[in-house]
Write a structure and sequence with these properties.
Layout (H helix, E strand, L loop, with lengths): L2 E6 L15 H16 L4 E6 L10 H7 L8 H6 L1 H12 L2 E7 L7 H10 L6 E3 L8 E3 L4 E8 L17 H9 L4 E9 L7 H24 L13
Parallel strand pairs: 1-2, 1-3, 3-6, 6-7
Antiparallel strand pairs: 4-5
Helix pairs in contact: 1-7
């Protein structure tokens, strides 16, 4: 049995009265999740919608609590770190992590960044040792697989694409994934939303098919297949 952690970050719901307002990233992620759970109904499933229920932003007092030795923290400091402890425990328990995110202003939503800020924490998900020279940070977790699901209004954010220099969502997620203990990454993307043309429809269809196929492969074999590239858009 494995543990699947599912993080959604769009501020939109998956289903709305007006279908044009349905979250694309959440619905692609749901395709993956439903396929996985159909194949592995006994797996533990943990879900957080940080877009709708965002974690608190970290504060000066939060940072002070983090750098206070655990055995000398006040009750107030322990309470400040309670959510962080809970979120870190979920990540630590997970074998597979799925993060779905729309691209907001060429990066991740503030709510998702707040989730990462609660988790990337010294002596919990990384340690720090200047004896390592110019790379003193070392992740403490390992062995996890990450599926990144993204949606964007424009296109061409991939390496070599026409907007490569403007795409900060996936690179940021990949950088931070080290501190989740991620060793394998798969990415599914839907583009062209703002154009609303055949390119968007093809991209969305491809992303949904990719989500189904990847979930089927991973859930039935629990072996890591060759990484799938970003969705190819017509």
């Amino acid at each position: 049995m494995s543990t699947l952690l599912h993080i959604d970050s769009s501020v939109r719901a998956a289903k709305n009265t007006n279908p044009d307002h349905d979250s694309i990233s959440k619905n692609i992620a749901l395709q993956f999740i439903n396929t996985w759970r159909n194949n592995r109904p006994d797996d533990e499933y943990i879900y957080r919608d940080v877009g709708v229920n965002p974690p608190a932003f970290i504060t000066q007092d939060w940072i002070g609590a983090v750098f206070t030795p655990e055995n000398t923290r006040s009750l107030e400091q322990k309470q400040l770190l309670a959510l962080s402890d809970e979120l870190i425990a979920e990540v630590a328990a997970a074998d597979v992590i799925l993060i779905s995110s729309p691209m907001y202003n060429y990066g991740m939503p503030a709510q998702l960044k707040a989730w990462f800020d609660q988790i990337v924490r010294i002596n919990k998900t990384f340690d720090f040792d200047l004896a390592r020279g110019d790379f003193p940070l070392q992740p403490l977790l390992s062995g996890k697989t990450l599926i990144i699901v993204t949606s964007s209004g424009e296109f061409g954010f991939e390496k070599g694409g026409v907007r490569e220099d403007s795409g900060h969502l996936s690179p940021h997620l990949r950088t931070l994934s080290r501190y989740l203990g991620v060793e394998e990454i798969y990415e599914i993307s839907s583009e062209y939303q703002e154009f609303g043309d055949e390119r968007h429809r093809a991209s969305l269809k491809n992303a949904r098919e990719q989500a189904y196929r990847l979930a089927s492969e991973l859930s039935t074999s629990m072996q890591t297949p060759a990484p799938i590239n970003e969705a190819t858009n017509a």
